[in-house]
Amino acid sequence: MTGLTEANLQALADPRSFERGRGYLDAVSGIEVGDGWITATVHGTERYEVELTLDGSEGLSGECDCPYGLEGNFCKHLVALGLTALTRRASLPRQRQEARSRAQDLDGWLSALSKDELLALVREQIGEDRQLRRRLELWAASARGDLAGVRSRIRELLDIGPFAQYGYVEYADARAYADQAGQAVSAIGALTASGRAADAITLAREAMRLSAEAVESVDDSDGWLKQIGTDLADAHLDACRAARPDPAELARWLVGQVLGDEVGLTDIDPLDYEDILGERGMTALRELAVEAWRGNRTGWAEKYLMECLAKAGGDVDTVIAVHAADLADDGHTHLVIARELDTARRPDEALRWAERGVRESRDLVDVDTALVDYLCERYAQAGRLVDAVALRRDHFGARRSLLTYQQLRAAARAADCWQGERAAALALLRADAGRRQPGWYGGPVLVDALLDDEDGEAAWAAAAECGADDRQWLALADQGRADRPADALGVYLRLAEPLTRQTGNAVYEQLVSLLLSIRDCHRRRGTPDDFTAYITELRAAQRRKRNLMRLMDEHGL
């Protein structure tokens, strides 16, 4: 078990998961060591089943059924199990050997049983384990070639009835339902393996339909049923590779599946079937896709299918035609087309589409900002700095925010014309502030712009004349504390006062930060005694807040 090391655990987990895993060591229980694996239960938000797999002398991997682990990540629960196992490293080889011995003993005991004894044992287990009985019934129907029986059992396995309350499977029961549905996937795979792939195709398609109907009635927050859909798609693909169905019929089914899978349960990609379809099937697939798209040029699924097939064939013009038939008002689709043309090394056409997107936008307020960024970057690359400034100016005029001001400033500085542009931009912002139009963050954008320009005097004057929100006043005080300690002190005292009436560690951290700034202002003003009197009175009034007192002590307040 040399692969199980703290270094390997740290390499597999992201830093946050590794650190959080350290805090879960007491939550690990029921550790079981097998031949190449370690399992346990870890109690987090829910109870999670965790397994570490030791692959050879150095390899290490793991699985956890928590939401983060189900996405393929090495989660904090796996880290906790690994670190806990390392504390018991001395006993791991012995436990592994004991697991091997138990497995060998069990295999030897089963091998020594007579047929009648084995049958009696299996019948006993069938009587006690309903899931085992269902699996065996399904295998028996498959072995008999009883397609009707297999179909009936698959329908039962995908029926939400036994798990649903008032017609809906709640989150707590979703995994149990998915586990049962997984037996249907196994049965379909078994049919393919036994030489009955054509039947497997039929049942896989029926199972997909039933699962799509069920998903609307299941709380699939953790993605268990989505995984069943993916597994059914894989089972169908395997069956098609084995049975080699009629290419034209398969093409019709694939197009119907893509267009009809509204819930996205299986996410079947027709291109995965290219080797099965062959030239005749791919031709039929393209013809059907074009027919569907012509009937609904704005349909998401129709566009997706056409785009996939066109990209696979390197047909950029068709990709553009698909997008051009359904242009968004904000210019986003024009940007998508421009990027496709860039990829195809057709930059002049790409630029024309991007410029057209800006022209055809109903209002620059709503234009896709990524389109504006793209165009300005292209203009800069071509040395068209005046055009970049003009576009940034228009965008700022339509959407006056700190970001568009910063972007205009960057473009104008590159073109060596910022002084004039700044004056015009600030005039617009002053007009807005005079009309009391708030910025994105609540206060006038004028104050934010002047602060960002590090024009402290003008920013203070604008705040005094037009008003500012608490965020802006704090930024003004922080930026101007060295030159205007008295003004900054007034801001800090005003912001600190309401925090003294609140509780909570986050509040205390904000308050202490302000107190440190207040102390610095008094130091700069030469009034340390005033601060001492203030802090003494504050401590007396807040003495019952122990966490606040501790935090103040840590900072020498």
Can you characterise this structure?
It is a single chain. This protein is mainly alpha-helical and 557 residues long. The chain has helices at residues 6-12, 15-22, 67-70, 76-87, 92-112, 115-128, 130-144, 147-157, 171-193, 197-215, 224-243, 247-260, 274-295, 300-312, 316-324, 332-343, 347-360, 369-381, 385-398, 402-414, 418-434, 445-452, 456-466, 470-480, 485-499, 505-525, 528-542, 546-554; strands at residues 28-33, 37-43, 47-55, 59-64. Helix 9 (171-193) packs antiparallel against helix 10 (197-215). It is flat. The mean pLDDT is 90.
Which SSEs are present, and which pair or pack?
Layout: H1 6-12, H2 15-22, E1 28-33, E2 37-43, E3 47-55, E4 59-64, H3 67-70, H4 76-87, H5 92-112, H6 115-128, H7 130-144, H8 147-157, H9 171-193, H10 197-215, H11 224-243, H12 247-260, H13 274-295, H14 300-312, H15 316-324, H16 332-343, H17 347-360, H18 369-381, H19 385-398, H20 402-414, H21 418-434, H22 445-452, H23 456-466, H24 470-480, H25 485-499, H26 505-525, H27 528-542, H28 546-554
Antiparallel strand pairs: 1-2, 2-3, 3-4
Quick overview of this protein structure:
By secondary structure, the protein is mainly α. The chain has helices at 6-12, 15-22, 67-70, 76-87, 92-112, 115-128, 130-144, 147-157, 171-193, 197-215, 224-243, 247-260, 274-295, 300-312, 316-324, 332-343, 347-360, 369-381, 385-398, 402-414, 418-434, 445-452, 456-466, 470-480, 485-499, 505-525, 528-542, 546-554; strands spanning 28-33, 37-43, 47-55, 59-64.
